[in-house]
Amino acid sequence: MLTSTPHEHEKPLPKSPSNSAQRSRPPIIRFLSIPPEPSPPPLRIIAALSVEHLQRSLDLGQNLLNLSRTYDFADLRRGYDVKALERQVVQFNYNASSALIATDYVLKNIIRRAYSPAAYASGNIDLIREIINKLLMEVKELDDTIGTVDRQHLLIFEDEVNAAYALVPDELAGLGDFLKASSEHCEIIQYTGSTAMSILPGLMSALGIARPWFFLSAWAWERDLQVQERLRIYRSVKEVFHESFFHCEAVNLAEATLRRYLESYDLFRPYHYLLTMDDSKFPSVEESLAKAAFYLNELESVTAIAGKAYEAQFHPDSEMDV
Fold first, then answer.
1. How far apart are alpha carbons 110 and 123 in whole angstroms?
2. Rounded to whole angstroms, how far apart are CA atoms 89 and 68?
3. What predicted TM-score, i.e. pTM, was given to this entire model?
């Protein structure tokens, strides 16, 4: 009987390493990545851009304050005169009547928001002043202690810069909508004004308000109270269209100032973009802070006057120097 025996030339299989052998291996060392130190803050750039924010805010605030003073042409008394003249001319000329009806409608929309320019100047523009002022205070503090500022403080400052420059267009968004609507109202009233005033002078005789050439008739004409009231209404409406021109000029100026502000893209760049700019082209922090102090004082004065003008819209009997 044959029995199988292992071949002597066959080698045994290698043994799996024991736990002790595994433990004897050198441990794997994982190096933690250390974030690089943040770049020095671009203080000269931030200070200079903040000064430009203040300057443009001041220009816009002054234009809004001037605009707030141009709404007298659209008050209720003038609206009554426009409607009264429309009732007189409707039987003589349809186009003049339609132009006056449209004018009355636009005047109501204009006077309804007469408080808006002063409200934006005393509210939104003043808030921008506070935002930029706070940022400049941080710039001054960092400039005084730049060698001892820790990493966390610099990261916080970066967030503050981004937040400040992002808040400005948010504060001006509503103003842009208001000025756009005001510009559309101006386009309408300029059209209706040119239409009406090209027709109304030819209707003066039909309305009985043309001065007679004969002196006795002129004497009686001057003393006729009804005729003089119709003449007053005619002249009042003529002044509405004349004064609306100056109002629309103020609207256009404010709108152009706002557009130039918002289209100055460098004023709203994020912090990481400012780090790529060459700060040697900008004035020193001290120079910028000196300019900022002037604009801050001027802005504070303008917004305070606008605040009084805004209050006067709701309290016309109060004695306010606006």
1. 20
2. 32
3. 0.83
Cα–Cα nearest to 129, from 217, 218, 55, 41? 55
- What's the CA gap between 148 and 178, in Å, rounded? 47
| pLDDT less than 50: residues of the chain | 1-11, 13, 20-21, 28-29, 31, 319-322
| Residue ranges in the chain assigned as alpha helix (H) | 19-23, 43-67, 76-89, 94-112, 116-122, 124-144, 151-197, 204-207, 215-223, 225-262, 271-274, 285-314
Sole residue written with tokens 């990493």 = 151
How many whole angstroms separate alpha carbon 222 and alpha carbon 271?
72
Query: At residue 54, what is the residue type?
Result: L
Task: Give the number of other Cβ atoms within 10 Å of residue 90's Cβ.
Answer: 14
Backbone phi, psi, residue 5, to 5°: -120, 150
Q: CB burial class (10 A; 0-12, 13-18, 19+) of residue 162?
A: middle
Which of the 8 DSSP states describes residue 212? P
* CA–CA gap between residue 183 and residue 159 (Å, rounded): 37
Task: Tell me the per-residue pLDDT of 23-49, one tens digit each, with 9 for 90 and over.
Answer: 555 554 454 555 566 678 899 999 999
Give dist(CA 86, CA 196) in Å, integer: 10
How many Cβ atoms sit within 10 Å of the Cβ of residue 104?
19
Per-residue pLDDT tens for 204-231?
999 988 888 887 877 887 888 999 999 9
- What count of residues does the chain have? 322
Give the residue carrying structure tokens 């002054």.
Answer: 62
**φ/ψ of residue 80, rounded to 5:** -65, -40
Whole-angstrom CA distances from 87 to 43, 61, 316 are: 66, 40, 31
Phi and psi angles of residue 170, each rounded to the nearest 5 degrees, phi first: -65, -40
